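Lab notebook, bench 4. Still working through the backlog of constructs that have no structural model yet. Next entry is a single chain of 771 residues. Request: give me the structure tokens for it.
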Amino acid sequence: MTMTRRHYLASVALCGLLCGGAGRVSAQSVPSAPEGSAAQPGVAEIVVTAQKRSESVQRIPVSVTAVSGQALATQGIKDLFQAVTLVPGVVFSRAPDDGLALTFRGLGTQARPQAFEQSVAVFNDGVFLGKSRLYSTGFFDMDRMEFIKGTQSTLLGKNASLGAISVVSKQPGDTFSVEGRAGYEAQYGGYQLDAASDLPFSDTVSLRVAAHYNDLDGWVHNDATNHDGPEHKDLGLRATLRARLTDTLTLTVSDQYAENRQIGSSYQLVGGNVPASYGETVLDGHTAQFTSATANGDTFHRTRSNLATAKAELKLGDHLLTAQSSYVTYALNNADDFDFTTDDSVNFFRSERYRQFTQELRIQSPTGGKLDYMAGFFYLSSHWDSREDQEWHVPGFPPVGAPGPGQLFNGPFVNHFIQDQKAYSVFASGTYHITGSLRLAGGLRYTRETKDVLYGRTALAPFTVWNTIANPPFDPTPLSHDSGFVDGNVSLQYDVTRNVMAYASFGHGSKSGGFVESNTIAVPPTALVNGKVPAALVAAGSGIRDEKVKSYEVGLKTTLFDRRLRFNIAGFWTDITDFQDTIFTGGTLGFITFNGPARSRGVEVESAFQMTRDLRFDGGLTYADATGIIQPIDPATNAPTVDASGNPVYGRYRRSQAPKIIFNAGLTYETRLSTRFRGHLGGNVRHRSSMFNQDQELFPSKPLTTLDLQAGIETSDKRWGIDVVAKNVTNAISQDFASPSVDPRFSAYYGAYLAGPNPLRTVMISVHFKY
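Model written out:
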């Protein structure tokens, strides 16, 4: 029997009673009792800016997980890939070419096409990051990370249709300080360095400078090059200046530079009956791959980025006017071995250049009145230039006797994709206090977005069936996409008691369509004009429609037992029209990009319990049933499935990168060892159930349960300390990402595919100081 949305959401409260023992890992600090007090400390209040105001997370009708900067630093977390392991309901995987698969509650944007924009937006100090390449940059000297789930299109706007991540860095302080942390990776080798300083120039002007560098070896040994990959070398530098120019005007300017290098890869051939000369076929800590494209034979990725922002805050009586401008750039160069063997058969070279300017202006009322409101304007302009050289030299495929023997997957070509994008938005949001306990909130956002594209493909010698027929060339083709959206959110909140809040919310979000740079655009040879794809077929073969989301959520947020227990529960239902999806066939059709319906429904529970003065439990659980309706690929023809009459055949399948269950649970013990020293011990368990890595429920990853342990000692005044963090201490292993092999020999001849393991055991020993 199909459960209706109304009946499903009404059942959430009952589910909460059954799930009460589980919750989320929260990285907030626990407040100490006043000096000389015997009172039991409670769980800390979590203040977030998910709705562009500083608010208690317990008072807003939004599901937010906040992870403190202290927790991120203690555990040696340097990027979002590591940070998401603290958050239930989130999966962040990395494809071999650094394409990203980021899902909230089982839904998110697929990894390969970089022209795709993510449905989960990332903001760095309020600055929207327009390309997912910037999601993998190193984040350092952070105050906190906020993981904001559900549709948040009114205030956060562009590309927040399935949620958002807000990274908040530490701001300049009013007193001089210097702090640092140095860590050594004992398991595989490498180190990590962080330093920051507050430099007040006067009572009104202060500067904070921060630096980060790491050189960390990977967890998979490449037997062909004797190198442990992926090795990460990351540099980050930031300067932030804050000046209170008058009693009513504050100006904050910041500039951040980052360089991220990845050497080597964790991916390997798995399964089947591969000859021993290509290495093992078991998912483990070994691979065997080589490319002549780099000096050391390993794949190489480098991204250099710069983020400059200026924010002015002007008090107009009781109102606050905020203007924020930003300029973001990155330059990327990748050299990839895509056969993932000791053969030098398939090499891809990618070069990207991106620049983005944004301007936001908003005015907000004070809180505490009958009506709280905010209104504003947002503008974005960006330019993206992507060139990918695909070098195909697959020997002996197809075999002798087949059409085009030995040369079907031979023949290089270049895809060149240039996109200019502009977006304009106006928005307004307000909360009306109907009574002291009942609040109605809502808002609307109108967005107009245009994308102008120039897309071409050039065949390079030698000219073969592969680069003239299977991947036919086409002249630089002008393409244009124009979108207009009306999105918004509405919620109703009721304070059952002072410490219990119930809410119901609805959100509508959108993400612009456009064109993708990765589609094969395979057309019958008879459709070619002078050996090239005509413009109309280029547009049809690379075009995607706008994606639209409707999300529903009901929940309870509670703080009980003298604030010793925080227990929150939410039920959600998300429907997507024209979900932007991609299938990688691993064959002559390559990537197929299309639109189709998708949905996710489930329940989330979050809990924090201060069991004693020294002992605390944190936990979280997300159950998400995420599915989509697609036209599957027929394994016999490697083409989309059709019936006897040639009509498309559709089926409902679980979404990729969408485990049904993710939970985190942890215990932290903090105690005074003496008058001079404090110590802490901790353990965290994270579990995700099985998931699929490609559409049509293909390439499954088995369930994964990891255990992390922490121990440390520091002085009572927190001037210095030592921490030891061991992650995945049991060396649990599963496929973090998997797909068909780009090199067709290994699936056709040996039944093998491509997979990369999750990070294996690491042990970081670090010392820190602050003066």
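Notes after review: The radius of gyration is 26 Å. Helices lie at 5-10, 12-19, 69-74, 80-83, 465-470, 535-542, 745-748. Flag for follow-up if needed.
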